[in-house]
Prior knowledge:
It is a single chain. 77% of the residues lie in helices and 0% in strands. By secondary structure, it is mainly α. The two termini are 18 Å apart.
Amino acid sequence: MPASTAPPATAEARSAVETSAIKKISIRLVPFVALMFFVNYLDRTAVSFAEPNGMGQDLALTAAQFGFASGIFFLGYIVLEVPSNMALHRFGARRWLARIMVTWGIVSLLFTWVNSSGGLYTLRFLLGVAEAGFFPGAILFLSQWVPSRHRTKILGLFYLAQPLTTVFGAPLAGWLIGHHGLFGLEGWRVMFLFVSIPAILLGVIAWFYLIDRPADAKWLTREERDWLTTELEAENADKTGHESAHAKGDLKTAFTNTRVWILAVVYFGFVYGLYALAFFLPTIINGFQDQYDTTFSVMDKAWITAIPYLPAAVVLFFWTRHATRHGTRTWHVAGPAIVGGVTIPLALYMGSPAATVAVITVTACSIFAALPVFWAVPSRFLTGAAAAAGIALINTAGNVAGFASSYITGWLKDWTGAYYVPLYLVGAFMLLSAALMIWLAARTPNDPQPLSSTTAPAENQR
Length: 462
């Protein structure tokens, strides 16, 4: 037998350890971090449910003012995003993610008593400051627990929380808004009160539940801990070995790496579309009443808002599963971007609420299918502090998109009187993301881990 070939028993044993370790992480760790993300995204987008259900009228907000209030959150996030992720790298995910959750929960709670547009702007900005670093920190944290061949699957399971936040969060928000008068508060204030408390509670639990690295996980066997530690150290050493002489896995690597900046622009396009839908879909649905001479209750609007996101969660799951089994290809990211770029403006030309929501559902499926696959890319060529900074830098571009899409969509709607021009712009940015992803894959065909394809999971190679 050649020296390079392991005995079958050893190969089988390693396969069993690998399968067991990944399964435990998928069951014990990923759902909790996904729950944190669920609450995070619900608190971030709660303002979109509040605006058409009393807040806009009570605070006398125009579409542009609401867009600015929605988007200023991202300016606060941008200010501290990279420093926050570097702090997570230094102090550990357990402490830093727990701290983030408690502080954002407290700020979110204060929305219950906001009474002016200026106060709304201030709290949205502070919410961004409080949340800064959570999403890239969660991505970095999960990436440090599994080898790259399992990363798309793990990030896909984590990302399910985002569309499911709207699936469950929209009806929950509608139900809470329906409790108008509770504690003497308007319905939208009741909603802010009760969606904020879980963040504080989860932050306290996270302090005791999360573990910074596999080597310290007592719920893994010694063999599983050793296998994970060895695999991750080998990957990091390999990535460091492929770095150039002037880039050794430090902070400078992220800011001087061309691929990081291109991926930042790609991510900008996706997030521009994501938040244009997230913040304005409830308002667009509210406008169906005048456009089609119909009437919806608060719960009707909540359920309609949720419709696109359930199929999006299903598509996300199977899309990332396919990418994991067969190896991530460029079209796993570029294909959905093209579909989303074409369908989002097309939705405006449908002749009924049902047809409009159906086309928007296709757009939502496209955006959510691509995002978790996209996030498996940066960790292929960055490690250590460079990974922390690179992921944060890419997500910063997403936060710029979040502000831009929120404010520009509202401003263009006020200026033109309709959502045609704003959504054409969304489509253009998503098509740009597709073009850049294809160009980047063609530009690096000889890269040690090319963007055009990742290695298929080990279990599929045997």
